[in-house]
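The data are quoted verbatim for reference:
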Amino acid sequence: MEIFAEQLVFKKSDWKDNLFKYGSIVMAVLIVVSMFLSLFNTDLSILILPIAVAVVYFTYWFVTSMYTEFEYAITEGELDIDRITAKKKRTRIITADCRDMVDFGEYKSDVNIRGTKRIDVSSGDKSADLFFFVYDTKKSGRVMVVFEPDDRIKSVLKKYVPRSLYTWK
C-alpha cells in the first residue's frame, strides 16, 4: 500500500514584501497618471498608451509573483518540496529520501549546523511549530531545510526517518 501525504503552506508577507508590493503599485499609479497628464503636451503622445499598459501589466505581474506557497508531499519515503508562485508556476526545491537524512528535529533559532546551506520553506510565522532536516546532495553538499509540517506529515515522516534521529512526540 502506497503511503502519501501532502500539505500546502502559505508564505506570510513580511514588511519587506509589503513595501515592494505597495511601493510598486504607488510607482505604477504615479507613472501612469503623469503619462496621461503629459498626453497632450508632447509629440510622443502615440506611445503613451502602450507604455502605460505595459507599466500596469508588469506591476500586476510583479505583485502577483510575490504570492508564494510551499507544497510538501511524501510518497513512499521520498519528500518533495515545491514552491508555487502566484498559483501558476511550480518549482521543485527539494527531493530528499527520508531514509538518508543526516539530522532531523524541532527547529529552534539557535540551531546552526556548520557547513550547511540553509533553505527556509516555512510560512514565516514566528509562532509556528518548525522542524528541520539535514541531508547531503551531490550538487550543493550538505543542506539544512527548515519547514512547517502538520500532524499528518509528521506521522508519515516518523515511519521513514531513521529512529535515531527523531525526538518529537
Observations:
- The beta strands are 4-10, 68-75, 78-85, 89-97, 103-106, 117-120, 131-137, 141-147.
- The longest helix spans residues 15-37.
- Residues 122 and 147 are 5 Å apart (CA to CA).
- The first strand starts at residue 4 and ends at 10.
